[in-house]
Design brief:
Elements (H helix, E strand, L loop, with lengths): L2 H31 L21 H8 L4 H32 L5 H10 L9 H11 L6 H7 L3 H13 L2 H9 L4 H12 L1 H16 L3 H6 L8 H11 L4 H33 L4
Length: 275
């Protein structure tokens, strides 16, 4: 047997093993959400319930604190934050990658160094600023800061650096300015990276628990992570209901990943061409 083939097969089996280890908790969560309370702790585990119990999912979606409202809030925050983050990150990245100015690299390094600042350190300054601006306890307290992402700027800059400068120079000769080059030439070429950033950023905002916990008070403003926590606190012995609520919270992430996995691979590969 070919050594290269044997190594590839072993690597594939190892990756398959870890994939199964990762997916088993999700399968157990979904399975439990359809079981009766008596079936939760049965051993050996019955992965497929004898009878599918839909009452827990009905409770999650039509109860007093319906997840429909949490979904609407999370979609509002995640979509608006992602649109702003993709636009502002690509615009800033173009400036750092394609526009020559004094101190550009030093400024970019200073900008990157902000990634080392723990986000918890900024909670008090943010609280003071949001209270002064009148957006504390509103969704804007999550949306506006979410539009600025250091990782997004870094990722898009890496892609823009890989685009040959000859393309920009030819456009300059034809009379195009930076904004036209950015919008008509560079952005269309960056679709995989833009899609990757949008998917990663959307996932981050959808799962953001800390900021929502600190800056939102009214129950009507709660996003899915807060709604899930609230559901668990109110039903601390309803394990089936908890699993149904967790399943409801994770469905959008699964859908987004399945739709965009091709773009994630292309975007990461293209952004890593030049460092």
């Amino acid at each position: 047997m070919n050594k290269a083939f044997l190594k590839k097969m072993i690597l594939t089996l190892i990756m398959l093993f870890f994939s199964i280890v990762m997916i088993v908790p999700f399968l157990w969560m979904i399975s439990t959400s359809f079981k009766t309370p008596a079936e939760v702790f049965e051993y050996p585990i019955k992965w497929i319930p004898a009878h599918f119990n839909w009452s827990h999912h009905v409770k999650v979606w039509s109860g007093e604190n319906s997840f429909v409202h949490y979904y609407a809030n999370s979609l509002k925050v995640s979509v608006l934050s992602t649109i702003g983050a993709v636009f502002l990150s690509s615009l800033a990245a173009y400036g750092f990658a394609r526009i020559e100015f004094k101190g550009r690299n030093a400024l970019f390094l200073l900008y990157l160094s902000m990634m080392m600042v723990p986000p918890q350190v900024l909670f008090v300054p943010k609280f003071i600023m949001f209270d002064w601006a009148g957006i504390y306890n509103t969704h804007w307290a999550l949306i506006l800061p979410g539009m600025f992402t250091i990782f997004g700027v870094f990722m898009m800059r890496q892609f823009f650096l890989s685009v040959p400068y000859e393309i920009s120079e030819a456009a300059f000769i034809d009379g195009a300015g930076h904004f036209r080059i950015f919008s008509r030439i560079i952005l269309p070429m960056a679709k995989p990276s833009l899609a990757t950033l949008a998917i990663i950023d959307f996932s981050w905002h959808w799962n953001d628990y800390e900021n929502a916990l600190v800056f939102l008070i009214d129950h009507d403003l709660f996003t899915v992570p807060l709604g899930l926590q609230n559901f668990i606190l109110e039903n601390n012995v309803d394990y089936n209901g908890m699993m149904a609520a967790a399943t409801a919270g994770i469905i959008p992430m699964i859908v987004v990943f399945l739709i965009g996995q091709k773009y994630i691979i292309q975007g990461v590969a293209s952004s890593a061409v030049k460092g």
